[in-house]
Amino acid sequence: MLPLQYLKGIGPKRAELLGKLGLETVDDLLFYFPRKWEDRRLDAKPENLPFIEKITVLKGRIVLVKDLYASGRLRIFKTVVDTGAFKAEVSWFKRHSPRFDVFGLLRKDLKEGAEVWVVGEPEDPLFKTRLRGEEYYLDGDAAARLNHIARLIPVYPLTAGLSSKFMREISRKALEERAGAAGDFMPAGSLAKRGLLDRVSALRALHFPANGFQLTAARRRFIYEELFLMVLAWALKRRQTLRALKGFSYEIKKHLLTPFKERLGFEFTSDQKRAINSIFSDMRSASPMARLLEGDVGSGKTVVALSALLLAVENGGQGVFLAPTEILAEQHYLTFHKFLDGLKVNFALLTSSVRPKEKQKIIERLAAGEIDILIGTHSALEEGVKFKNLRLTVIDEQHRFGVRQRAALRLKGDKADMLVMTATPIPRTLFLALYGDLELSVLKEMPPGRQPVKTELAGEDRAFEIVREELLKGRQAYIVYPVIEEDGARGLKSVKEQFTRLKGIFKNSCVDMLHGRLPSELKKKIMDDFVSGKSGVLVATQVIEVGIDVPNATVMVINNAENYGLASLHQLRGRVGRGKHGGKCLLVTGSAVTKDGSLRLDALRSCASGFELSEKDIYMRGAGDIMGLRQHGDMDFKIADLSRDAELLEAAIADREELLHADPDLRAPQNAGLRRKLIELYGKKWDLIDLS
Ligand code: ADP
Ligand code: MG
Q1: Which pTM value belongs to this model?
Q2: Between the CA of residue 309 and those of 83, 120, 317, 416, 417, what are the distances in Å?
């Protein structure tokens, strides 16, 4: 590994700055991908590629030079460049210095008669005749033609103290020194089949493409590479799980499952039955379960999870049920009471608001095996909680957790079964990318008797009128605002401010406020009051987005609805329509609704099913946020973008299957490089032990 200082022009100081960008070696620099490209060709036809930016470049002869003082200490160096077609005034600005001539270099280079290239910012975007100069190059300068002008040039993410020009120069040097050594580890057959560039050519073309066509090809190659490595890692991770042995076996005894079913008061839907069957058969198999249960909001995932937990308990094991928020964990705890009181099952709730003494007791009883099921938030688990015999981990609303966290949980119960659940339906490609190591069960069908939630656009007055009508009938309402505190800049309404106002508007009802910054104790009390019907209106932020189940709540008012992603809107809407009374979702918009915003609201109104919504393009554009893709860092792609590159992802998956069929353990000599790369990227990160 060559350290960066090996390259000419990089001393200790610059090496340190480059270190800030995460660059330590020459190879790091080679794979430091441009963020976009600038088109600095004079006569280029626009190529209409979103990652190429057209900028203003002139070539001509300097015909006039003037050095001026402007107001104060500002100095201006004015040049007039004759391009043959027109004359342009190009001005260069500097702060005056009493110690040296700030325009020394310009005065030397930009003499009258000199032939130059100028890159600048037009003062009026329509005309190129008055520019603020940014860079210039003398026409005879061969190196400039290589890296800076008359071509497409790369634009890298920067840090203070490093210039774009410098980055281009060292990137070129890195290419000259090391590009040849960037051997290709990708299966040659797949590359040929997909018509993809070899790695070395792709690398050169990615930094300094000859044209947009070449650049597109280079990008494709690296997008494919990135996705291929990921889906291959998923497949290996999954196989690793399948090859592990749990070392114990289950029997379906039914001494808990039967009374539980009797107590439910409803029949499982056929989707629920199917999911439970798959889960039970996973649990009875020799290798650990790794399954995702995907079901639209309100489809009844909790009782499926409960069935699985009871199977574990019937067999003398322990289970843990994890929720992403305290509010949700509390809710689940109440549900457990509802369905399990009277059965021989011990369960406990552990969140960060449980008092230390109580917590200590729970921890001891867990270790002694006296608690069968622990319900908690993720954070509650991280602090030295040990089980005697953990057999099943259920993670609710999985989209909030990442693979790494999932792996960490696995360590809690060696080879325990794992069931993860999500109410965010995702397109197939995204499932394969995000949960490539999991089996899938889907609840499509809703429990009987559900009426679809009526979704309408409404003015605030109309929305509040409907809230009032429902309150009169004894129902409850959520009123959601996008931010906790006033945010004048974006013109968004806030929970805190509106709460005061709404107390006045709904004088005859109890109005409460819920948001993430309240102390846990208070959050719990407010939620309890709403669940029990003590309060009628809950003014809240998106904290109530996941999981909350209050069947008596029938109205959801979403303010500044244009601001939410489609997935979030659907989740929020899913809070109502959970009981026999039906539900209404009222979308109140602000004054500035973008085109995308109104597309989302239209989609939401016309479509009741999360599965259908998730196939829509506009869903995907916002899905990255709700699914926490950025949050949990599994998807920190360098160049791929799943909402755009689905087709390459499919290709990568097909090619992966072919490869693993031919060489299941990547032991063939031609795959040695590939195996090394996988270990480097995913060995530690995903605990891929089979490879080493
Ligand atoms: P989600 O899948 O969104 O987590 P829940 O598990 O909270 O949904 O279930 C929503 C509501 O539907 C709960 O009140 C639950 O008791 C009820 N429910 C679940 N399954 C059925 C069923 N088969 N028939 C009737 N009601 C059901
Ligand atoms: Mg749920």
Answers
A1: 0.75
A2: 78, 66, 9, 12, 10
